[in-house]
Amino acid sequence: MPPHAAEPAHRCGVILRPRSGLCTALRRPPVRGGRSGVRRSARDLIELVIDPGTWLSWDEAVADPAPLDADYAAALAAARRTAGVDEAVITGAGRLGGRRVAVIAGEFAFLGGSIGVAAAERLTRAVERATAERIPLLAAPASGGTRMQEGTIAFLQMVKISQAITAHKAAGLPYLVYLRHPTTGGVYASWGSLGHLTVAEPGALIGFLGPKVHEALTGSPFPAGVQVAENLHKHGLIDAVVAPEQVALLADRALATLSAPRRLPRPPNPVEDPPGERTAWDAVRRSRRADRPGIRRLLRHAGRDVVPLHGTQSGETGAGVIVALARFGEAPTVVVGHDRRDSPPDPAGLRAVRRGFKLAAELGLPVVTVVDTPGAALSPQAEEGGLAGEIAQCLADLVTLPVPTLCLLLGQGSGGAALALLPADRVIAAAHSWLAPLPPEGASAILHRTVERAPQVSAAQGIRAQDLRARGIVDRIVAERPDAADEPAAFLDRLGAVLAHELATLLDVDPADRLQTRRIRYRQL
């Protein structure tokens, strides 16, 4: 990309390529399904994901329910013959990119992947074993939901499955989900919807109420295109749409961050250059340059093992907010931030920010917030969606997060949407960034009933990075020579080095001391 080119709004640095060198011992002929027209079996998926020769099944013989209805007994026997498995779930462990992981995979060819007591017990034991052995868990459901032949007791299995997965996550262990075609009903509403990272097969049918059931109960077909992976991604309900051949690479990249060490050698502290003297209004104008690097370019250039979780396509709900897994240097982090080129942050976007905070807290990962926004969404929909409440909750969540927090003031920092991402353990500012309660034009309109005095108001309000540092709001300033947009690669290199150093430093601080220091810092403002 040329230095002055506008940054694409639809990319976040993830390129996936198929794995090779796969064993064939588990291969079965695929059947029709999904957008590709091919439905892979559970064993097919295991072959694609797990390193060759490392798979170890955890499955034990299942006990059929008693008493067993003759028709159901015949259906079970037929399913075992045609599907080549003894139940609707396969479990075990192997290595993925050399890292040991557990897998629970649904087999749709066995009675539509429906979950009864035996399948639920097998699945729950596998989750519990993964927790006891402290290894990440990859789930790959493909199911029509609860097994109707077993009735209410099968329906209630959702509870114990969800309980086991919640305990796995509470132990600080990664839980990744790949939703295959189709995933519906109680499976989608339990183990299919609890992932730290959730991706789906292209064209997969995904929804709570299956379309056939909907039509039978209501007399009308379910609207086309709603329960499709791509539509759920557009609405922020899943993180990506990924072909089966790409799952291993995506999971490997995610686990590189989620399973990274939390104590690291501290990289050298980059020399801090004088930021240069600019007026507040000059900083505002420079921060608004269309070719100024933003969060996506930062992730592409300075981040490693980047896995987008939210806001990777322009036009999607809450697209003014990016959430991603990434590493700076060796330090793992959850990155949440604004992209000023997208729509302003709305309530859905701020809920995605809070999801990033929750993910970080569950897995003990540091958080990097990136502030670069002209302000929050201004619309009736934003007000009715609880914009003010979401800003308040982001503030409350961030200032009390138990993990290290680092804020990067990258460009524009206007209003409550900027403040919601600010109160971190350490705050870094680009030389031409700024922070203000409103854009200077808005403050000028309030104070002087004209926008013409915005330059004078911006100076009087002390919004520059230098002014913020003098007041103890910013801890260090990253120089621009003379402007980030004129030297994007060198500027992003400096930012990446500063982020890597600051994160490793924060990870080395006792958590109780870090939280106390944060509390005092913002109490004394």
Distance between the termini: 41 Å
Helix content: 25-40%
Largest sheet: 7 strands, mixed
Mean pLDDT over the residues:
89
Q: Please report the total strand number as a whole number.
A: 16
Q: In what range is the share of β-strand residues?
A: 15-25%
Radius of gyration from the CA trace?
A: 25 Å
What would you say this structure looks like, in words?
With 525 residues, the protein is α/β, with parallel strands linked by helices. Helix content is 38%, strand content 16%. The protein has 20 helices and 16 strands. The protein has helices at residues 42-49, 70-83, 117-132, 151-155, 157-170, 185-188, 211-218, 229-234, 247-258, 280-287, 295-302, 347-363, 380-384, 387-400, 415-419, 440-448, 454-461, 465-470, 488-507, 511-523; strands at residues 56-57, 89-96, 99-106, 137-140, 175-179, 183-184, 197-200, 206-207, 240-241, 304-310, 321-328, 331-338, 367-373, 405-413, 426-430, 476-478. Strands 1-2-3-4-5-7-9 form a seven-stranded mixed sheet, with helices on both faces. Strands 10-11-12-13-14-15-16 form a seven-stranded mixed sheet, with helices on both faces. Helix 3 runs parallel beside helix 5 (157-170). The radius of gyration is 25 Å and the shape is elongated.
